[in-house]
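Minutes, project check-in
Item: structure for the 196-residue chain
Input as provided by the requester:
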Amino acid sequence: MASNPERRAALVDAGIEVLAREGARGLTFRAVDAEAGVPVGTASNYFAGRDDLLRQIDARVHTRLAPDPQVLEGLMRAPKDRALVTALMHDLIGRIARDRTGYLALLELRLEATRRPALRESYTKSVRSQLEYGMEFHREAGLPGGDTTVVVLYLAMLGLMVELTTLPGVLDGVLAGASVPDGLVARIVTAVVPEG
């Protein structure tokens, strides 16, 4: 296996682009090489196989979509109330909007995990660890509500993110007076997160 970390990262990012655009069936080493602008055969020198590439895409996309530590630090200076949860959810939606390709790749990974048991196992662990991290973060930050609040918020926001990245027109005008996405985020948080 080749070990140039910059080249590997570029190939993984190219894989994210291909996966988001073409789906799992279009994710070939040849397509990744073409997207990265490298000679044919390069990707096969960096990944043990397609499953290895998919696992590395999973890890990379979660890194790309993670909160900016400085932004998070600034947000966490606010009172630990529903308004802060709303601000955190707006930040999440903003990150998804800025890296729509990354989020679409995550959706493709979900679909591919239904067909590939090894990917299902690793991707389930990855997503579950993200959810558990969110629950722990919520508790340690002293935000309102408990684990149930976080899980329900996760499920509601997941639905919103899927619609925004795939069929955003579905949400236009769906609730009177609720803009997309800001008004919907506020409605979700109000419905799920207790005031205290």
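Outcome recorded: DSSP finds ten helices and no strands in the chain.
No further action items on this chain.
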